[in-house]
Amino acid sequence: MLSNLLNLIFSLFIFSSFNLNANETKHVIAIGAPTIDFLLDVDESFLDSIKGEKGGCEVVDWPTFKSIVHENRSFLRRYATGGSSANTIKGLASLGLEASFFGRIGNDDLGEFFFNRLLEIGVTPELIRTEKPTQQVACLITPDCQRTMRCFLGATLEFSDHDIIPEIFEGKHLVHIEGYALRHEGLVKKAFSLAKEKGLKTSFDLGAHELAREYKDSLMKEILPSVDVLFANQDEAFALTGLDPKEACEELQKMVDTVVILIGKDGCFVGSKGTTSHFGTTPAEMVDSTGAGDLFASGFIYGYLKGLSHQESAQIGNLLGGAVVEEVGAEISDERWERLLHKIRSLESLPALAGK
């Protein structure tokens, strides 16, 4: 009888230890450019008056940025914290994961605003201060709700591979890097290399079709083989592969374990180990597409780290992406977050979320 009791106690201990590990809160670090987004309502003729393609993101100098934003204040809806990786990590923090953000930020009022907003949401800022101004982006929103971005880099110009040290990956489970970091190509390569040495999972968001086109060779030969989860929209996937979304998803699986290709209101393709599936999206009343892909990535990464299926992960991603397009800017309101977390909890196969 004593033997049976000891066996029962031992079994309960093992079961308890297993569950503790299974429910361990995952810690994600995002690397990218701390950014302040200036959200402006413009018409098509305004886009025709400035250089660059509609729907993309191009770098401009300070005089050009000033002429777009500061001389058109009547178009300005609001300003808010932004940046692709920052948007994604804020979403993960709101889902209840431990979250950190690493990048270079200006020692200015906009930098302080960004820093404090991360703290409010529950993200640990791991930021390097510099005397250059904080990066700023003009998000130009046309009547079709599409956003076109023009970016003044500022402090991000000083971000380099020398900033990437092994210590920033200690205690983390996954590192997420934005495609805009490709402007510092050595930084991306070093970050993924060190992360792999530390046993982290890696995710990468291509971010803009211009970047996919410009850095195609490096991406295909050196960067993507170090990526566990790749996010791209159909334009970025085409720029990289020349293929339609499904075929691009199949092709990129030759280098990346899990590939997610977003196709707007038609949902996404998710592929892994030679199997590609299509998942529909959540109906939404779009007012601004800023942050849609970033918040989708938050939801998918959450599911990925929890060991959920591709369908469940995409479902969470679509919930978040569908929610953020119904608001102006790349943040979901606290009230909407409450409703989202309730929906996610209602999915029977999902564990309870900490959340907001």
TrEMBL record:
Pfam families: PfkB
UniProt name for this protein: Carbohydrate kinase
Keyword Signal annotated: yes
Keyword Kinase (UniProt): yes
Similarity annotation: Belongs to the carbohydrate kinase PfkB family.
SUPFAM superfamilies registered for this protein in UniProt: Ribokinase-like
Keywords associated with the record: Kinase, Signal, Transferase
UniProt signal peptide: 1-22
GO molecular function list: kinase activity
Domain Carbohydrate kinase PfkB, chain residue ranges per copy: 78-333
Taxonomic source organism: Candidatus Criblamydia sequanensis CRIB-18
